[in-house]
Amino acid sequence: RPRVFSGIQPTADSFHLGNYLGALRHWVALQETHEAFYCVVDLHAITAGHDPKVLRQRSRVAAAQLFALGLDPERSTLFVQSQVPEHPQLAWVLGCITGFGEASRMTQFKDKSQKQGSDRSSVGLFTYPILQAADILLYQADAVPVGEDQRQHLELSRDLAQRFNSLFGKTFTVPAPHIVKDTAKITDLQEPTAKMSKSSSSPAGIIDLLEEPARTAKKIRSAVTDTGREIVFDAEGKPGIANLLTIYSALSGRDIDDLVAAYAGKGYGDLKKDLAEVVAEFVRPIQERTRGYLDDPAQLDKLLATGAEKARAVAGPTLRLAYERIGFFPPV
Ligand code: TYM
């Protein structure tokens, strides 16, 4: 079976619908056809400042949500990055074949460091995409399910795999992005041309999986829509309505065309009211199952420890091979 790898940061108290529709639903689907490795990337989560107690809890909540969304610990390997030391070990090596200019061109780094002020942003934020490449390459992943915002980072992962292979001999699989166009960029409800983002959207712009459905309904009601009153799918001209239709379609399984036909002659208010219900129906069982996992943190930690062992069984040999190719001493 081909392999998939992907990761998500535990930087908020809940994942949002952008995470789910852009990436996580593909994580769940791909475990049917692929050998799947998924990671809560807590090393990445300390690149912009954090609170230790909150971080550990958020990693648990992240894992609980992933299991609740349908990741099956029997079929997929889910683990927390800090329990697999091979990740930063390989990242060092890859950092030494990454150009300074190449890393400087990463747009997420440019955006985030600009926002924080370049004196205040960490070296970790700068080398972040190199660690991401290490994550992927350790598992010899063929495909990486992510949203559109990760495309450039994946391009770097591919470049580093190819560069290492040509410098030191074939070692890594060159991973392909798995980006499913229609939901690859879910946008902010308040700013429908920007992506829904835990770091830059206002709370009113984000739908969290774990929030109260009443709160979600209110956010959808006050979502920025477009002038005119006709419900049509026009991503350029009516990005607000297009975003709502995209979410509606993905969660309900109904085609956008079907929805547009069904709402002919109806108003934005009708669409928003129905979408709020669709979202509520969707999150209810997920919230319940997430609480179930969190009620037994010892059991959850055990599942994650087992995941980390399975991950190390793959990451360890890959790292040893890379070390040998590089000319390092063998492990003792
Ligand atoms: P992160 O934690 O920001 O986001 C997790 C996943 O959600 C996707 N996503 C979106 N998709 C559609 N619309 C949106 N508005 C939206 N917002 C987020 C992201 O594209 C991502 O797939 N650097 C990564 C984490 C990472 C990783 C990896 C990913 C670390 N190592 C290795 C893949 C492979 C990140 O910050 O994702």
Automatic annotation (TrEMBL):
It catalyses: tRNA(Trp) + L-tryptophan + ATP = L-tryptophyl-tRNA(Trp) + AMP + diphosphate + H(+). One of its GO terms (molecular function) is tryptophan-tRNA ligase activity. It is an enzyme of class 6 (ligase). It is found in: Cytoplasm. ATP binds at Q9, P10, T11, G18, N19, G147, E148, D149, I186, K195, M196, S197, K198, S199. L-tryptophan binds at D135. Its EC number is 6.1.1.2. Keywords: Aminoacyl-tRNA synthetase, ATP-binding, Cytoplasm, Ligase, Nucleotide-binding, Protein biosynthesis. A motif ('KMSKS' region) lies at residues 195-199. Belongs to the class-I aminoacyl-tRNA synthetase family. HAMAP family: Trp_tRNA_synth_B (MF_00140_B). Catalyzes the attachment of tryptophan to tRNA(Trp). Homodimer. This is Tryptophan--tRNA ligase. The lineage of its organism: Bacteria, Bacillati, Actinomycetota, Actinomycetes, Micromonosporales.
